[in-house]
Design a protein that fits this description.
This protein is an all-alpha fold. It folds into two domains: 1-108, Orthogonal Bundle (Farnesyl Diphosphate Synthase); 109-231, Farnesyl Diphosphate Synthase (Orthogonal Bundle). The protein contains 13 helices and no strands. It has helices at residues 3-16, 18-24, 29-50, 55-69, 77-88, 94-107, 115-137, 146-163, 165-170, 178-183, 188-192, 198-219, 227-230. Helix 1 (3-16) crosses helix 3, helix 3 (29-50) crosses helix 5 and helix 8 runs antiparallel to helix 12. The longest helix is centred in the middle third of the chain and has 23 residues, at 115-137.
Length: 231
């Protein structure tokens, strides 16, 4: 990857996520550039929805991805970078399309009826990122680690939901599944009104335990990732 291209990607990651940057900055150069290129795509898609709220632009991105999957590369930092990543690693375009599906779910947000529906959403917006990164970070065993990558992505998204629960309520959004609220006799309006109660704490703890179980499953398989991805 050209130096100016890799420097732009690195600056993008540093600007938007210090945590992500610190986690991957010490990878070997080719892997680091590849991870940052994937981040660039995800950041771009996320900003289209969360910052610009532009559904038309999201569909344009989906079309560019379709062109990319057919060998037509749009002249843009993201696509030029991803072209090299796909040449260097055994990548698949499917999780990129699914990640855009997750962004569509955010644009047309509907409350989740069940925990299964919530997990499906978490897969589309976060588990897909694990699947994108897997061939880069586990070059020898990535085919064995699909579920582990999905578990980690879902766990991290559940963690984000629990962390941002107050901000989401301010935006009149409830990511907590309705069946879980009903199990603890908690009404949506109580959540949106930020009415703290033992029932709310139990809902929060149930989702935290679900996330923890997925983190635990992922941790048992860390040894299958490339050694230089673990350091």
């Amino acid at each position: 990857m050209e130096k100016i291209q890799s420097e732009k990607l690195e600056a993008l990651v540093q600007r938007h996520s210090t945590t992500f940057y610190m986690a991957f900055k010490d990878l070997p150069e080719m892997k680091r550039n590849a991870v940052f290129a994937v981040y660039g795509f995800c950041r771009y898609a996320d900003d289209i929805v969360d910052v610009e709220h532009d559904e038309e632009k999201l569909e344009k991105l989906a079309n560019e991805l379709l062109y990319f999957s057919n060998g037509v590369v749009t002249d843009h930092l993201i696509w030029n970078s991803l072209k090299e990543v796909f040449e260097q690693f055994e990548m698949t375009v499917d999780p990129f399309f699914e990640m855009i599906d997750g962004q569509r779910m955010d644009i047309h947000f509907m409350p989740f009826e069940t925990i299964g529906h919530l997990e499906q959403y978490c897969y589309f917006v976060a588990g897909t990122i694990g699947m994108m990164l897997l061939p880069i970070l586990a070059t020898q065993h990535y085919k064995k680690l699909g579920q582990a990558a999905i578990d980690l992505g879902i766990a991290m998204q559940l963690t984000n939901i629990l962390r941002d629960i107050g901000e989401d309520a301010d935006q009149n959004r409830c990511y907590l599944p309705l069946e879980l609220l009903q199990d603890h006799d908690l009404e949506v309006h109580e959540f949106l009104g930020k009415q703290m109660s033992d029932r709310f704490v139990k809902v929060w703890e149930d989702l935290a335990q679900l996330a923890e179980s997925k983190y635990d499953r992922f941790e048992t398989l860390i040894g299958l990732f490339d050694q230089d991805s673990q350091e």
